[in-house]
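Usage example:
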Amino acid sequence: MFGNKKSNQRRFAGVISGLGISLLAALLVACGSDDDSSTPAISEGKQVTFAVIATSDLHTNVLSYDYYKTVADPTLGLERTATLITKARSEYPNHVLLDNGDTIQGTVLSDYQATVAPIKCEDTLAQYKVMNYLKYDVGTIGNHEFNYGLPFLNQVTHNGNNCKGPNFPLVLANVYRVSDGKTLFPPYTILTREFDGVTVKIGVIGFTPPPIMQWDKKHLEGQVTVQGVKESAEQWVPQLRAEGVDVVIALVHGGLSNAAYTSTMENAAYYAAQVPGIDALIMGHSHSYFPDGKNYANMANVDNVKGTIFGKPAVMPGFWGNALGVIRLDLEYGKGAWQIKQSKAELRLTSSKDASGATVYVSPDPNIAPLVTQEHQDTIKYVNTPVGTSEFRITSFFSTTGDTAAMQLINAAQIDYVKTFVQNNLPQYSSLPILSAAAPFKMNFGGSGFTDIPAGGIAIKNIADLYLYPNTLQAVKISGETLKGWLEKSAQQFNTIDPAKADDQSLISSSFPSYNFDVIDGVTYQIDVTKPAGSRIVNLSYNSQPVLPTQEWIVVTNNYRASGGGGFPGLDGKSIIIESPDTNRDIIVSYVKKVGTLKRAKDGADRNWSFVPVAVAGKVTFESAYDAEAVARDEGITNVFKDSDKADKSVSFYRLQLAK
Ligand code: MN
Ligand code: MG
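Running the assembly step on the lines above writes:
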């Protein structure tokens, strides 16, 4: 077909011109230092060792600080990874430092610099300031780099302009501009290094997950095209090798899966490792660890102790700066070329256990925090600034004893997001009802307190108090039968109440965590706590009609639940239809910004679930926030009553009037 031929020609032209750019880059790098004719001959048998040191998925965790909670958090932060980098460099004087992407998005600091007070052309992102200080050699582009759109990405990476940015090249082989068919970033770069008096040329190539076209469709459609990771590697690696490099390192912003390969495969490192000419891999995106002897066990051709995939060394260095990958490569010169004689892939964590079993963290590099003082302070100020207003107090106090505004807000935000997503991306599902599940994360487990957002301005840190975990939004397509099973599992939150018993009975099961008590909005239902677990959900209805076992539903939840977290029946990852790159928390923030002012009647009075009324001889008791009966009344929950206060005023004891 004519149209196809035309686009093939365009692709071909893109390849040629892309090659031109990379040849030029290679010549510039090579200029004056390693022209073949002037390089002194390397003797046969000469050995040289160097280390590839790498981070991945830093997500702008520059400092060890949680902006959502406005507290220090030693579990994260490049300021601590930096200490591991310094140590690895002292062990391996010959080294290169690489970053595997998902670098400029992920904390409130990055949101602040991208959307709240957009960074100017003449300024460098806090993240890159610190990476420049650490003298990174090369980075690649993860999926999250696209979250703020291409103009922003191009500005902060000085891609095609003279703005400030990283003092090191960024490479990406599998994304092409529609306008001219060229790769958006150079597909690869060549580092020419003098190690122990000899020249070693290291090729570094990068790949991003192809589903960026779905996740950031609004930014990317019509602007760029994406190529499968394997196809891209097969196209570009031979050209990189043809430029006379000694070693090729692949920065694969993707995880490790041996599922059948497709050109849209998200976690394609298993297949990239099989492409001839790639010598070592940095993996990421899955926010996991490799090699650690635990993850990716029993996968054919993967050694999760030695850290090899099809015999090639590979690391996945955690996320948010909590780990560093170190690949040692021992080269030997023979038959006119450097050969990799031996390699060792290692994962180094910023945390460890001391002799007493307590967790200890490496110290931060003291030079880093002063580089970003202003950005850090500005971000904290922003986190405390309202993004919207609520006319009522939002709490988790009674979220397991009645339907509360807290759960309604999470679900309303999730449904709003998925409605738009389905319209734009999944029109084949547009006739399915969209339901949403939310659980109260903060129910004072181990004295951890409750969600408590006062009426008035809602700041970002308040939304983090509501949605404690940094999960990402996912949605599943399930049957009515699975929907009922989901609610039955949630209803295991409750002990079985014996109506005839005259003694006090405790309502809440102490062995069932509240984060598994999913309240599902969009349907109505009742819970009969006098029935045994598994047969407690009654009157499950949608638009006043009973939910049929065979009806299909979209249910919005998070990555934890959708992929099997909590062991809910029928939720094993296979029913996932949407895997958003956005956190549920960010989606709630956006929703509050959009709504502006939350009003009780519209935003906090759903009451779509309740207990089946039963007369109970004795008291049904539970514990909640101190002296908060009035909060239940404000929620429209009329059947809980305070019995007494704990002497230390930490909590009060309540009873549920099940007959009401
Ligand atoms: Mn990531
Ligand atoms: Mg509700």
